[in-house]
Design brief:
By secondary structure, the protein is α+β, with helices and mostly antiparallel strands. The chain is built from nine helices and 13 strands.
């Protein structure tokens, strides 16, 4: 249906907008301003029933956006993070990521589509020209801006189309909850987890390679052995998290060559146990020089002296490696006599 098919008395009254000066092309001015073409009314401008259909369409998009946002929240809470589904033709994908992306994208798209459909079918589409004026804000200019604003607000029908207004406000108000829900991944707070490891009094030192408890006789002078706490297995869900704090270096040094008094007291017959985690950025230390008793971090070359309290003798590390106090149980197995007395790894907020 076009404006030519509607009786003239049913057409909306044209408002007197400035269309600019219209010129006529001649030899002196072959590029005269032809002016704007005649405005053609849309069906929504002519038929209130069509306008109401557009209103309901826009409102439906905003409502669907709200439902998509609710779906995002439900998916985030209800879908396990390790669940996979098959989606043709993509293949197997993570169900939670797929649901979050689909619902979030739908919520955004529907808000945008609703706003575009509203603007194209219900807001005024009449082209007007505004002659250039001085940049300075004259009182007349300010008055004109306010008048234009009021006219635009009136033409948007925001006050009259309450269904659109209310559903749009609902969609815009509900959508930010998606971001609020993501804040859950910032918690819970770590508490004292970073200050403690799996080591405790009586836990056996288990060889990382053989997965067998270590005896004092298994550790030769000048050798380097890596150990983990008893009960920690590689198939455990938290294995990587726990081994990153509890990994040990076991070295046997002649007791006479140990310079640090506390190190000697916390050792067993020259067997010392130090954290394997570098105190610079947390790389695993794996290089040992048995003549000097120095260990080297391969990442940034921080060097520690295991015969002198594992103090830093070179590189960017800020402090010595933490030592674990060890002993031997009645069966001859090496065991921990407690946890580390300070947090392992990097600076840990200046050891606070």
């Amino acid at each position: 249906m076009s404006s030519q098919d509607i009786p003239e008395e049913n057409l909306p009254v044209e408002q007197d907008h400035a269309h600019g000066a219209v010129g006529v092309a001649d030899e002196k001015d072959p590029f005269a301003d032809p002016g704007l073409p005649p405005h053609e009314h849309r069906v929504q401008d002519i038929d209130e029933r069509a306008a109401r259909r557009s209103e309901r369409t826009v409102a439906m998009m905003f409502v669907l956006s709200m439902l998509a946002t609710v779906g995002f929240i439900v998916s985030y809470v209800a879908i396990p993070h390790d669940r996979a589904i098959y989606v043709f033709p993509i293949g197997h994908v993570n169900a939670l990521n797929f649901a979050l992306g689909l619902t979030l994208g739908a919520a955004l798209f529907l808000i945008g589509a609703g706003a575009v459909h509203w603007a194209r079918t219900l807001m005024s589409d009449e082209e007007i020209t505004d002659e250039r004026h001085p940049i300075e804000a004259e009182p007349e200019v300010r008055a004109k801006v306010m008048a234009d604003f009021k006219q635009g607000a009136k033409e948007s029908a925001l006050g009259r189309r309450k269904l659109i207004r209310n559903t749009m406000l609902g969609a815009l108000a509900l959508f930010p909850l998606s971001g609020v829900m993501l804040l859950r991944d910032l918690g819970p707070l770590p508490g004292t987890k970073l200050r403690h490891t799996l080591w405790s009094k009586g836990k056996l030192l288990v060889n990382m390679n053989t997965n067998e408890p270590l005896r004092a006789s298994d550790v030769a002078v000048g050798s380097l052995t890596f150990a983990k706490p008893e009960g920690l297995e590689e198939h455990d869900e938290e294995f990587q998290t726990e081994i990153a704090k509890a990994a040990l270096m076991i070295v046997r040094i002649q007791p006479d060559n140990i310079k640090d008094k506390r190190e000697l007291e916390w050792s067993h017959e020259g067997i010392v146990a130090y954290s394997k985690i570098c105190t610079h950025v947390g790389c695993p230390i794996s290089l040992y020089e048995q003549q000097t008793h120095h260990v080297l971090c391969p990442c940034h070359q921080s060097t520690f002296d295991l015969s002198d309290g594992a103090r830093v003798i070179f590189g960017p590390a800020g402090h010595a490696l933490p030592q674990l106090r060890i002993g031997v149980n009645d069966e001859g197995y090496l065991e921990a006599l407690g946890d580390f007395e300070e947090p392992v790894g990097p600076a840990f907020w200046e050891r606070g």
